Amino acid sequence: MNIPKVLGLSGFGLEVPDLEVARRFYVAFGLQVEQTAGKLVLRSPGRSNDEIVVVQGAKKRMHHLSFFIAPGTEAAFGEKLAKAGIDVRVSPAMAELRPGLWFQDPWGTWINLYPRHPDPLPAISLPEYNIGGRGARIDVDLWQELPRDRPPMRIGHMLVFTPDWERAEKFFVDVLGLWTTDRVAGKVAFMAAGEGVIDHHCFGLINGTHRGFQHASFQVASMDDIGFGAWRMVNAGYKQGFGPGRHAIASNLFHYTRDPWGSWIEYYADMDKVTTSWKCRDWDDLPYIWGPEWSPEFWGTEMNGNFEPR
Ligand SMILES: [Fe+2]
Fold first, then answer.
1. Alpha-carbon span 214 to 300, nearest angstrom
2. By the 8 A CB rule, do 3 and 77 touch?
């Protein structure tokens, strides 16, 4: 029995040389920021969990991952980790960043298990769209009414590089209780967490040469919100990006902006929802069904690897 299981992605940590560069970038993206000595804490407005924690370090690197667990399952997780040969580590430095359990996975990445249920998504009112034969918006100039600055609703997923792809997938399934919803054979495993009707993925593993952060993705309400967000980033000076498009696996609409350190941040909407009836399949490489030319550096680890030795 694979119990207990994580409930979803709470967030992640990045280490970067200049916190001010990070603050400017994520504020432009639409996140709220709290700055204290030596760190930034970022959230989609209204969320109660810290979605990104940025700390200062010599070079950009992935600092940690954080997943929700049900309150009361801490001891069961401790036992399960111990059985897998992993100790819950008491690290004052990590405990200062996030509450909950902390441990290092077999490849050295710190992982936080945060005892809290994810907040429900906020209700968003969408305009009447005259699409697909609908024509109920009459004598209204939509362009005057669309909200242009609607922020992200929440962090939805992130993808990380791993040098030990098959074993890492097995670890996240067996020990943390995520489940693989689809794979690009030999390249990417997309993983979901939680119960009931859930996003196609909240986490993913990319077969690479090193550990590292590849992209984080924030849910927005509509295609218009993706467009306004992308436009806002360009106007703020973050001109490298690609989108919009619609992904193949998970079907979500997307736009990516390159972050100041060479990895990516994504706005997404309209992702496939799955239940435990979903059947995982292996696909050939199909990043999207329509969109711009794929950035050649998108999957590259050169700028994103955690190159420190174990
Ligand atoms: Fe994504």
1. 9
2. no
H/E segment holding residue 112: strand 110-115
Q: Which is nearest to 205 in space by CA: 243, 242, 179, 175?
A: 179
Are 88 and 103 within 8 A, CB to CB?
Answer: yes
Neighbour order of strands in the sheet with 61-69: 32-36, 39-43, 52-56, 8-16, 61-69, 110-115, 101-104
Give me the pLDDT at residue 300, please: 78
Name the band, by pLDDT with cuts 50, 70 and 90, for residue 1.
very low
Q: Which residues have CB less than 5 Å away from ligand 1 (the ion)?
A: 217, 266
Distance 214 CA to ligand 1 centre (A): 9
Could you report the per-residue pLDDT of 194-212, keeping only the tens digit for each?
Answer: 999 999 999 999 999 999 9
Residue 226 Cα to ligand 1 midpoint, Å, equals 13
pLDDT at 310 over 60: no
Rounded to the nearest angstrom, the distance between the alpha carbon of 158 and the centre of ligand 1 is 6
Centre of ligand 1 to C-alpha 4, Å, is 26
Residue 70 tokens read as 């049900």
Contact (Cβ atoms closer than 8 angstroms) between residue 37 and residue 19: no
Read off the pTM.
Answer: 0.96
